[in-house]
Amino acid sequence: MSRTISFKILNFGSAEHAASIALRHDILRKPLSLSFLKEELDTEHDQIHLAAFEEGRLTGIMLLKKLSNSIIKMRQVAVDEKMQGTGTGTKMVEQAENYARDNGFSTIELHARNTAVPFYLRLGYLKEGAEFEEVGIPHSLMLKHLLTNSFAVLAVKKYCL
Ligand SMILES: CC(C)(COP(=O)(O)OP(=O)(O)OC[C@H]1O[C@@H](n2cnc3c(N)ncnc32)[C@H](O)[C@@H]1OP(=O)(O)O)[C@@H](O)C(=O)NCCC(=O)NCCS
User: Fold this and answer.
1) What is the DSSP letter of 10?
2) CA–CA separation, 58 vs 27, rounded Å?
3) Averaged pLDDT, 5-16
4) CA of 61 relative to ligand 1 center, distance in Å
5) pLDDT at residue 149, as a whole number
6) What is the DSSP letter of 13?
7) What tens digit of pLDDT does each residue of 107-157 get?
8) Ligand 1 within 6 A of 88 CB?
9) Where are the beta strands (DSSP E) in the chain?
10) Is the pLDDT of residue 22 over 80?
11) What is the spatial distance between Cα 137 and Cα 60, in angstroms, rounded to a whole number?
């Protein structure tokens, strides 16, 4: 039977937002014996909280933070442990890229945990510069330059001619 994954931008302060913080805690912070500070979470009020749902259950979350008119940062990417490796993360990244394109951004950047670098490489993200430490573990800067809708149309036209 085919699965249906739906996506939604969560309202800051909603019950679903609270559930997404719990998921982020379980997947991203608890394994490192860390917790979120309220002050840290409060700074996220103007970021996009993009969530994945399956059969009404929250299965994935990521945040998108505007860095400039052209660059948006993908952060806090987490998939429910039971659903990891089943395609949720890939679909969530695709949704984020669509959101970025639709809103005029040309580049997505992220700080990838080294354990997740192969996942992003597979999706066309490239590593930049030297590794660095965040939340006590090694990370790498990764970037993807998006083909904007107008370039995509040109590319299709060129290919079709
Ligand atoms: C990393 C993460 C977001 C990927 O989401 P996911 O739903 O598990 O990924 P998908 O099922 O879409 O995986 C797509 C591919 O990437 C691979 N992959 C996923 N996570 C990987 C990892 N950590 N290392 C190597 N490959 C990985 C999968 O095996 C799959 O490859 P395949 O189709 O050839 O089998 C998720 O596993 C996760 O939440 N991990 C823990 C938290 C984390 O590391 N977050 C990222 C912080 S930068």
Assistant:
1) P
2) 13
3) 98
4) 13
5) 60
6) T
7) 999 999 999 999 999 999 999 999 999 999 999 999 999 976 665 566 666
8) yes
9) 5-9, 48-54, 57-66, 71-79, 107-113, 126-134, 137-145
10) yes
11) 22
For Cα atoms 35, 38, 41, give the angle at the middle one, nearest 5 degrees.
90
Which of 62, 84, 94, 137 for a ligand 1 pocket mutation test, highest count of atoms within 8 Å of Cβ?
Answer: 84
> Quick one: pLDDT band at residue 18, thresholds 50, 70, 90?
very high
Closest CA to 21 of 44, 55, 53: 44
**Residue for token pair 């005029």:** 104
60 with 83: CB under 8 angstroms? yes
**Residue bearing the CA closest to ligand 1, atom 35:** 85
Q: Which domains does the chain have, with CATH numbers?
A: 5-160 (3.40.630.30)
Give the residue carrying structure tokens 């998108």: 64
In the chain, the amino acid numbered 15 is A
Cβ neighbourhood burial of 65 (10 Å; 0-12, 13-18, 19+) = middle
Check pocket membership of 119 for ligand 1, CB cut-off 6 A: yes
Under the banding of pLDDT at 50, 70 and 90, the label for residue 50 is very high
Q: How far is the CA of 21 from the centre of ligand 1 (A)?
A: 19
Q: Give me the mean pLDDT over the 19-28 stretch.
A: 98
Q: Count of residues for the chain?
A: 161
pTM of the model: 0.92
Cα separation, 63 vs 48, whole angstroms? 5
